[in-house]
Amino acid sequence: MTRDELLKLTDLALKSGDVNLAKMTMQQLEGMDTQAVPEQTLPRAAGLMARNVVQGVADTANILTEPLRYGMNKIGLDVPMSVSGAADYYMDKAGLPEPYTDSEKISGKAQQFLSGGGGFVGTGGLLSKAPQEISKYLGKSLTTSPMLQGVSAMSSGAAGEQSKLQGGGATSQVVSSLLAGIAPAGVASMAKTASNVLPMKAKSLLNNVTDELVDKVIQRTGVQTQGITPNAMGAIKEKVTKALQNGDVDEAGLKRLVEYEKVNATPTKGSITLNPADITQQKNLAKIGMNTSDKNLQRLGNITNENEASLLQGLDDLGASQGYTRAAGGKSITGLIQTKDSALNAKKNALYKMAESQEGREIPLDRSWFVTRADELMRQKNSNAFLPPEVKTMLNEVSYGQKSLLGEAREVPFNVNTIDTMETVLSNAMTNPDGNVRMAAGAVKQALVETPMRGKISKGAMDSFREARKANRELMVWRESSKGIKSATDKKGVDLDNFMEKFVLNKSADTKDVSKLANEIKKDPEVMQTVRNQIMGFIKDKALNQRGGDTAKLSSAGLHRAIKDIGDNKLKLFFTKSEIDQLKTIRNVSNYEQFQPTASAVNNSNSGTTVMGGLLNLGKSAPFIKPMITDPLSSMADSRAAKQIMNPGLLLNQNKLNTPYGMPLLYGSGGYLLDPDSDRNRQ
Question: For residues 619 and 552, which has the higher predicted lDDT (pLDDT)?
């Protein structure tokens, strides 16, 4: 028997009056006292440490294996020895020394608890690499503050053993272990939160939280604060100040809070933190409330609807209120383009007429030069074989100077008055989808532009002719400068319904091409405003999935896609930077409102929340149920919903986990909770 066991037995013998037993145990104790205390050598110290480390890991394993051993023994599978008992048995056989003095036992127990805690930290490291989110979170918790966990473990083990040596029972040992384990973590917690008890002004001075610092933190979010009311801005600054005084500012959360204020929407905790747990609770609470007839409980769900209305109003304020009419934008743009085209064409014709009037006759062009030059240019481009029939006919008629009409030969004039007709034929040919055909028609058109006048011409007529040719070239270049302009001036007509989408809104519309079209639109403020309204109307239409009316629902995905398809570069052609920023803020807030992370557990089927709502409504029709079920559920839902609504967060950085004070206690007291007097559960 051990010395402790003999002491207890002696005490019991004396209390019961068994003198003989008391004498026998006391003699055995005297014999123990005469034994020499083991010499404290380096090999003994190393052996004790090895025993303590192995025993600590085995004790931690007991927490998981003992319930299994108990169950197996219950069904007849005899497992006589625990993991820690087996470890102790084999270390005895290996000749490892056992602790003898009280100091060896106390320090040994501290070492055992420390090594047992290392097993938890190691397990946490493995769990943190697992793919499941819950495993990662548990692993991170187990590996947080390993130094503090170690101190707590050693304190817990030493205190429990001290209590045991002083004769304390199982309860005394567990309590001593728990209190000692809490102490280091409590000291760390007090040091960490000491600033919270200081007055606000003192904390501001201590942490140097100045107005300039608060402004810089807000500016770092990159969100433009124009349009935010002074009261709202003051509330944001107050939150930032408190966060800076208590720790790190969550700048991502701050950015989201500022964006909510910019669009006049109400932030909630889940939409600011985007934490899966917060979002799950918030959305499920909102559904519970909307499944009841209680106005207070419906508040969280109503906020979602109010925020959507604010976002739609924001789009309307940017111009979407006019709605999107497919032909409206096309009609305004093509009307503007066609007006300019008519003016340029009239200018060109006037100059040709002036040249003719100065010469006193129609000014002929050089047929031979034109046909030869056209053939030369087509040969250079290897496009002769692709000349379209109507252009080939035109070249032959100009070359021969006549054409057959109803069996009669008719003269074909070739002068400045025929240029327009010929250019129309060539322009139509250049719209052919075949690139070779367009190249051939382009070569003929170039030859026509370069063709000189034939015969002797007066200087005045020559000067006017050159000006007319210059005006004609400018007109042709302008018409070809943009696909939109070219389409608007096409003699075949324009598809007004698809003009805006094809040449402005579509993601395939080239920015440089749209830019040239926008330069013309900007010259008329009324047309510019119409186009702006139509662009915003188009974006809203896509965000509502082309469903208008009171039942329309905003789609953050549709809004995001519409803005992305148009693109920043094209939006800049029609809107100011602040307007684009506001549009993107509306898009961002809609994303926050509808965001549902993978790790969340939102009841999308609405089954559970419907049942909960039914229980809350039941109290109204069955009064005897109200105090037992309805009132407690209503109070819980109302309280938690209020926290979600009124407290979107102090903007503190949530990435830092609190020290898991419970972890040292879990492995620290685990051995005592199993059975502190079991002699390591050998039997």
Answer: 552
Domain that holds residue 26: 1-35
- Say what the pLDDT of residue 8 is: 72
Is 170 buried (19+), middle (13-18) or exposed (0-12) by CB count in 10 A?
Answer: middle
* 491, two tokens: 């003699």
Q: What is the 3 state secondary structure string of 167-203?
A: CCCHHHHHHHHHHHHHHHHHHHHHHHHHHHHCCHHHH
What does the block give as tokens for 15? Answer: 């209390």
Q: Are residues 101 and 14 part of one domain? A: no
Q: Count CB neighbours of 294 within 10 A.
A: 18
Residue 507 lies in a domain: no
**Tokens 């403020």 label which residue?**
525
Report if residue 12 sits inside a domain: yes
pLDDT at 173: 62
132 DSSP assignment: S
Q: Is 472 part of a structural domain of the chain?
A: no
250 token code pair = 């969550």
Residues 564/569/572/573 CA torsion (nearest 10 deg) = -120
Domain count, the chain: 3
Distance (Å, whole) CA 397 – CA 416: 16
Which structure tokens are listed for 361? 């006759």
- Report d(CA 580, CA 577) in Å as an integer: 5
Is residue 79 located within the same domain as residue 173?
yes
Picking from 538, 479, 485, 483, the residue whose alpha carbon sits closest to that of residue 510 is 483
Residue 139 in this model has a pLDDT that exceeds 90 = no
pLDDT given for residue 295 in this prediction: 76
The C-alpha atoms of residue 98 and residue 17 are separated, in whole angstroms, by 34
- What is the C-alpha separation between 486 and 513, in angstroms, rounded? 11
Q: Are residues 5 and 146 in the same domain?
A: no
> Which sign, positive or negative, has the C-alpha torsion 171, 173, 175, 177?
negative
- Listed range (399-403, 529-533, 670-674) with the worst mean pLDDT: 670-674
Tally of residues, the chain: 683
Which DSSP string corresponds to 31-46?
Answer: HHHHSPPPP--HHHHH
Q: Is the pTM here over 0.70, yes or no?
A: no
Are the CB atoms for 185 and 156 separated by under 8 Å? no
Q: Is residue 188 part of a domain?
A: yes
pLDDT band of residue 677 (cuts 50, 70, 90) is very low
